[in-house]
Every structure is written in C-alpha cells, then in structure tokens.
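User: Reviewer 2 asked us to show a designed sequence for the structure in our supplementary figure. I'm pasting the structure tokens here. Could you produce the per-position amino acids so we can include them in the response letter?
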C-alpha cells in the first residue's frame, strides 16, 4: 500500500531518519535555548548565594587586635541581611570593637526589622587564654574595647529576633562591658562552642522585653546553648542569668520570659563573690540545664552554684526548671520558694546526700522534694608512700610507722579535705595487743583504730578517713603502738593521701 509522505510544512518530506534528526536538533535547540537563558538566571542565583556568605575581612576587618573592626563587621552583616540572611564568617584573628556588636533593632513596641536568620561563624574558640595551647592558634575572638558600661554587651542580640546562630568563637567583654553575650527576646536560635569571657555582670544573659511587641506571643525561648562557656568573670559576675525581663520596674501579668531554653554541657564560671551564681534564675521557667558545670572563679568559695530569685512584688516564681548531672561546688540558694524545679545532681562535698534546701523549697507538683544525688569531691593532689621492707614499732605510745608517712605542701587550708587510705599486712608478736591508726600532724584519729591480737599471725588491715586540711603543709601517717612492748610489725603496706576540694 503506498504511503503518504509526511511533511513538516516545507517542501521536503520528513523521513523517519529526518524526523529523528529533526527531533535531535530540536532538542538541542531547546537545550541551547535553555543554556542561553541560564546566564541571567545563574547570575541572579549567584548574587543570592554570594549574599548568603560574607567574610568580614572582605569588608575591611583586620582581625589584628588593634584596628577597630566594628564597622567592617556590621557591613558584612548588612550585606548578608540584604539577601534574606546567611553566614557572616570570621577567619582566625582578634577582632577589636569599640562598641557593642548588635544584631536586631527590636524594642518593647516593635519587632526587629532586620538581621533574622543570620549566622556568626568563627574559626574556633581555642583553649584557655592563660595557657599556650596549640589550639589557641587559629581561633576567633571578638574583643569589646568601648567605654566601661555595666549595661553594655559585647555581642547584643536585640529582638524580637529568630533563627540566629553563633558558633566557634570567643566574645570577650574585656572587663568593660557588663555582659559578654546578651540574648534579648530571641527564639529558635543556636549557640555552639561560644566562650563568653571577662564580663562584669554576667557572661550570658537570656532575657526578654518588658512587654509583647505587636504580633509577638513569645519571649526568649526555644534556644539551645551547646558546649558554651562563661570564663574569666569579674568577682561580682554571674555565669549565666535567665530572667523574665530587662528590668523589674514594670510588672506585667503574663509578661514574656526566658523559657524552654536548653543548656547542654559547657562550664559556667562565676565570680565567686557574695551574691553571684553560676546560674541565676530570675523568674524564668521551663529551662533545662544538662551536663554543665558551675564553678566559682579564681579559687573563690562564695556565691551559689544555682540561685532562684522571683521578681520583686510579682507572683512569678522560677518554675519547672530542670538541672541534671550538674557539677557544682557551692550550694543551691534562693530568697523564697520555687515550684516544680528538679535537681538530679552530684554536688562536691563529703559524700553525704544533697541537703534539704529550705530556702528555695524545691518541690514537685505533688509536694515531694525533687533534689536527688550526693555530694562528691574532686582530687587536687595525690601522694603515696609504700613500704620497701617490713617496719616495726615497739613503743607503748603511738609512733609513726617508718615509710608510711606523707607530708603535703601547698594544701588549701580551711577549704579542702584530705582523704587518707591505708592497707597492709600486720602482725603482733608475743602476747598483748597491737594497734594501728591514721594520724594528722601527730594526732591519732580514734575512729580509725585497728587492732591485731598477739600470736594470731599476719592479718590484713585497711582503713580510710577524711580530715579537714588545717594547714598548708599537713603530715599524714600510719601510727602504731604495742600494749606490752613486743613488736607490732607491718610486713607490707601503703598509704594514699588525696587532697580534695
């Protein structure tokens, strides 16, 4: 049967081969058209992508610790903000700023019009500034060098803001700004590996406005601090403050507060002066602190690891905060009752249960005190002595067993304890009784007395005791005596002395 030629509207018939060729060329033409259309679109995409990542040094920041880098950093932030948010990157260096580095322009009556969804990304916070650690090389530090001002913050996030992130840097208040980091009416944000250093009021403050700006139904909440620090505080500074508002001058029922924030890990040093705290909880609720430490700085022993403070003249108490696995050396305190706060913690001390806390009345909703755990110590110094040969005592009054004496130097007198452990093999020859005991500075502790009956052969003996460090150079010893003047022999043995704080 004859076929009717298929045409494309031209004079030339379209065969299957020509059709495939035409289709291929057509597809290529479409692809070429797409390629031709891409440069403008790609350029637009590149502009958006470029705006989402800005290096502060590209905007003139020096990072040399001398130049004022505030304007350059703000220029990088402005550029990222123009693209709808993104990352502001800080290469390794020390960035001196002569005023607060502020994100957001929120107020009690207005939501911030800028700086949402911005990340401040450093190159690492390094180790302790006082030590020459290798990891300090290549770190990022922002240093406040403006006028001394207790109300200022080196890094100030002034919301209502959301979706902020700060990571891998040091924010140094330089003993000039009251706060290293202020998080004011910010939500859904993440802080990772950030060290807040040298604050005069608090390393960190999580706070909120005195009222709800239009359209806002939240305060400062749903933020996470992961492995962050407060370090090198001034003597009267807190580690972290969580509060229901900027001031107590305004009392509002239902005021926004610092709530539903999570602090995971990290160390929060506080000044250790009277009235300071590692975590100062001021009318805030539903916050969780897990696996963090609250430590007084500079060897001081004042203040509280955690302190609860309701607002003056206000019914809002700190409610339903959870502190779990917290390392702390000072007690938990407060000026009045709280409700529903839970502690599952191990407080440094003498191994006794965590004490009842009547000043804060930490109760569950069923009225049961929710403070669990025990106090534990940390070892500061360890010294040992062991016998290389048997040692004997024949005196009828207590005498040191030669080789089982430890003399410490530089102990923290008055604030540390000494845990002494003896174990060995003892024998009393003849008749009568031999006695051994632990002694501090020549004074035998009667409750450590061990006895060996004459003629009963070798016996295992062990004893542990804890003494108060009464001086900076205490001497700990195993002492022995014989009831009848025949030898009390320690055939083998050792003494372990731990200074605890």
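Assistant: Here is a per-position design you can include in the supplement:
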């Amino acid at each position: 049967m004859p076929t009717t030629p298929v045409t494309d509207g031209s004079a030339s018939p379209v065969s299957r081969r020509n059709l495939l060729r035409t289709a291929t060329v057509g597809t290529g033409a479409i692809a070429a058209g797409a390629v031709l259309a891409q440069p403008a679109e790609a350029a637009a995409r590149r502009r958006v992508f470029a705006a989402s990542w800005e290096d502060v040094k590209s905007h003139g920041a020096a990072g040399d610790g001398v130049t004022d880098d505030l304007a350059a950093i703000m220029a990088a932030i402005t550029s990222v903000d123009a693209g709808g948010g993104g990352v502001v990157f800080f290469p390794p260096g020390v960035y001196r700023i002569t005023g607060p580095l502020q994100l957001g322009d929120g107020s009690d009556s207005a939501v911030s019009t800028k700086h949402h969804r911005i990340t401040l990304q450093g190159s690492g916070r390094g180790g302790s500034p006082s030590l020459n650690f290798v990891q300090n090389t290549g770190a990022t530090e922002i240093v406040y060098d403006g006028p001394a001002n207790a109300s200022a913050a080196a890094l100030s996030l002034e919301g209502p803001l959301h979706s902020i992130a700060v990571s891998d840097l040091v924010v140094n208040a330089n003993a000039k700004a009251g706060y290293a980091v202020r998080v004011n009416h910010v939500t859904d944000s993440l802080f990772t590996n950030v060290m807040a250093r040298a604050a005069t009021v608090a390393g960190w403050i999580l706070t909120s406005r005195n009222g709800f700006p239009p359209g806002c139904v939240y305060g400062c909440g749903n933020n996470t601090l992961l492995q962050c620090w407060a370090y090198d505080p001034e003597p009267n500074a807190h580690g972290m403050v969580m509060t229901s508002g900027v001031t107590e001058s305004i009392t509002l029922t239902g005021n926004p507060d610092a709530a539903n924030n999570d602090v995971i890990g990290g160390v929060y040093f506080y000044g250790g002066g009277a009235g300071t705290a590692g975590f100062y909880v001021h009318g805030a609720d539903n916050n969780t602190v897990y696996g963090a430490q609250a430590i007084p700085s500079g060897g001081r022993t004042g203040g509280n690891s955690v302190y609860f403070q309701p607002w003056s003249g206000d019914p809002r108490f700190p409610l339903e905060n959870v502190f779990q696995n917290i390392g702390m050396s000072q007690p938990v305190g407060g000026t009045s009752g709280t409700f529903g706060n839970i502690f599952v913690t191990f407080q440094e001390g003498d191994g006794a249960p965590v004490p009842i806390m009547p000043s804060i009345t930490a109760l569950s909703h069923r009225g049961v005190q929710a403070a669990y755990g025990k106090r534990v110590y940390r070892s500061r110094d360890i010294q040992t002595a062991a016998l290389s040969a048997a040692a004997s005592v024949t005196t009828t009054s207590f005498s040191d067993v030669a080789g089982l004496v430890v003399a410490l130097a530089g102990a923290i007198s008055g604030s540390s304890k000494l845990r002494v452990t003896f174990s060995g093999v003892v024998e009393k020859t003849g008749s009568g009784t031999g006695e051994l005991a632990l002694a501090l500075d020549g004074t035998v502790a009667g409750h450590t007395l061990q006895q060996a009956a004459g003629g009963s052969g070798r016996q295992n003996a062990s004893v542990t005791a804890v003494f108060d460090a009464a001086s900076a150079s205490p001497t700990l010893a195993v002492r022995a005596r014989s009831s009848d003047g025949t030898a009390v022999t320690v055939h083998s043995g050792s003494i372990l002395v731990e200074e605890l704080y």
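For the response letter, you might also mention the following. The helical segments are 16-51, 70-82. DSSP finds two helices and 37 strands in the chain.
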